[in-house]
Amino acid sequence: MNRLQTRLGKLELQNPVTVASGTFGLEYGEFFDLNRLGAYVTKTITLKPKIGNPPPRLYETEAGLLNSIGLQNPGVEEFIKLNLPELKEVLSIPIIVSFSGGTIEEFTTILSKLERTDGIAGYEVNISCPNVEKEGIAFGVDALVVYELIRRLRSFTNKELIVKLTPNVTDIVSIANAAEEGGADSMALINTVQGMAIDPLSGKSRVKMGVCGYSGPAIKPIALANVFKVAQRVKLPILAMGGICTWQDAMEFFYAGASAIAVGTYNFVNPKACVDLIDGLDNYLSEKGATLQDIIGKVSF
Ligand SMILES: Cc1cc2nc3c(=O)[nH]c(=O)nc-3n(C[C@H](O)[C@H](O)[C@H](O)COP(=O)(O)O)c2cc1C
Questions:
Q1: Which residues contact 60 (CB under 8 A, 6 or more apart)?
Q2: Which member of 11, 24, 158, 270 lies 3.0 to 4.6 Å from 19 by CB, making a disulfide possible if both were Cys?
Q3: Is the pTM of this model over 0.90?
């Protein structure tokens, strides 16, 4: 067995390194062979096309990135017609499609459309979006809604079903439990943390939408704590993300209990971050005479 091989629910991955939804596209193929990744995760798609939020919608802080992209995407029909064939042509690794909806019905409609295509290995369900039926409160903050959503989605597919959790909740373990009881195969965490920045001289919000999503190195300890807490209490495998830049960052997440990791914001800093990370992990584990499986969940105190 290859020392980096890992399993995420139903998926056997050649290595544990994937990309975080919304931070990576086929254009990175200019920098490295994308088939070196463990898996590829798409930008979140929705039922109808979305033009996203008005600019400015990105702002770099001292140790991270604020964003309010607003799920800009071409919609599921266009994705199936144009984007998926391109992905299938280039990639021989598992393709994971991230999707999101404003109602449970919207989620199931998207999934049933995607299920009629081939070439998709699994789905990442983005539940950080506002629930139209529940006064716009994000799906991912209500354990009962998460349970019901995942139960319904489970009945539409046998493929890998990953639930992506938001850290903007009081008790992430109860949400992870609800995803497990609903029938998810694995969990991805964390989505962005809420953040904001204001120009101290003009008093103007740096990002048009005001409160938005915060990512990058600043959120790594928060992500790590969430991964550790969930790994202690829930059996499903974890795809971890949040501030991961180097192989050493990734090692922290494996020790905390993650079976795979994703690089997000750091792709914007080093477009070769993922392959640097794969090579770094491989060298380190080889020197140590260990496999990834020897590390997962083995944090000591
Ligand atoms: C510009 C940008 C766009 C993002 N778009 C999505 C998205 O479409 N769907 C999603 O689930 N997460 C999205 N995210 C969140 C990332 O996938 C990831 O969960 C988060 O940024 C934490 O990882 P990082 O610190 O490595 O970036 C986005 C993040 C950024 C910075």
A1: 66
A2: 24
A3: yes
